Amino acid sequence: MSGYLTTHVLDTAKGCPAKGIRIVLHRLSDGERTQITETVTNDDGRTDSPILPSDTFQTGTYELVFFAGDYLRATGQAGDDPLFLDEVPIRFGMSDAAAHYHVPLLLSPYGYSTYRGS
User: Fold this and answer.
1) Pairing state of beta strands 22-29 and 16-17?
2) What is the percent of the chain where pLDDT is above 70?
3) Nearest C-alpha neighbor of 59 from the set 4, 14, 20, 15
4) Which of 54, 80, 97, 99 has the fewest beta carbons closer than 10 A?
5) Omega into 53 within 30° of 0, i.e. cis?
6) Quick check: helix, strand or coil at residue 59?
């Protein structure tokens, strides 16, 4: 079985999934940052399919960029410009070619956290 990558976003301030957040996935290698894909979260705060499916999965260093500012503005949580949180980058490594990696974002207007989920 090949590995794959999933993500989701929860709005911890409102206590619900974060619908409509644009997410871009980059691969980092040899000082280069290459965009792999772009997607948007659905009603459940998840992507409709793995953001990096098993047929294109490779181990290495990656970066997910969550465009949180657009979501916070749209939901009336943004506050004054400049926003405290706008684009939220999360860099992480995947070393097991057969593993399911899950990197969620728990988001509020003034903080966020992440972890390796299942």
Assistant:
1) unpaired
2) 99
3) 4
4) 80
5) no
6) coil
